Amino acid sequence: MSFEHGVVPTPPDVRVHPTPLYEFIFCLAIFAFLWNIRKRKEHLPGFIFGSYLILGGIERLITEFWRRTPVIAFDLAKSQLQLIDRSGFDVKFEFYLGLSVAQITSLAMIAVGIWLILKVLRRESELNKPQMRNA
Fold it and tell me: Within 10 A of 100 (CB to CB), how many other CB atoms are there?
């Protein structure tokens, strides 16, 4: 079966959120925030990128709740995992707490962004510490 322009149509009785529009608005706000940080007198190397990772991860995490994305684990759909479970194998999946792979990736982005910002701030505070001299 083929679809016009390679896009699978949404059934007419299914309502969906315009997530590309939401993403555009979120990303525009993220851009404005990061652009404002860039204009400040001093910004630390890595701070803007860490901020982007956090904000981009939050944006994706939120918009994925509105998408019609199937929850999958290990490249298998939920129905395939249930089939494996019924087949007698001792396999139990929690479906990543009901999150999609994109949401899990977003959580990783947020964690890396927080780690990066903490590292940058720690390095900056160490550089600004008064050095004790031996007389």
Answer: 20
